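User: I'm preparing a small set of examples for a lab meeting where we compare how different chains pack in three dimensions. I only have the primary sequence for this one, and I'd like the structure in token form so I can line it up with the others. Please keep the answer compact; I'll paste it straight into my notes.
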Amino acid sequence: MKKLLVVFLSLFFLFGCKQDDQVSPRTFLIPDGYTGWVKVKYNAEVGQTLKTSTSSKLQEYRVSSTGVVKTPEQHIHEGWATNKYFYINKDGQRKKLIPGKMVHGSSSGRELSGGTTEYFFVGTSKQFHKDHYLPNEFDTR
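Assistant: Understood. Below is the structure token output for the 141-residue chain.
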């Protein structure tokens, strides 16, 4: 009887959770050698359309040379996901960036003028601690 209850509760939890508004892992493609803050502006009127990789469910965003991503996609706050970060060169070759080593200070999002904005820092720990405050100009982009 106890096993049946555990199976029932497991199935209830598994199928009872909403899956359509759960956060998905995102991949950020950052220009090779870029260091500094990255601003991801969701619900932007103009911007790049979300690119979903066919081999996985990862969502890919290209970061501009000024550290900005704008997308009309909505930022979903529910759930857990592990984002991936890569430097990408002109030939399209990727070099993985490790959170905690080259990616720091990731925020959970900030509501600004009807949209959600996410920030993270690309660079060494030393660079992050030196420049750990968001630049003022990010609020006007």
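A couple of notes for your slides: The chain is about 15% helix and 30% strand. The chain has one domain: 24-140.

User: Perfect, thanks.
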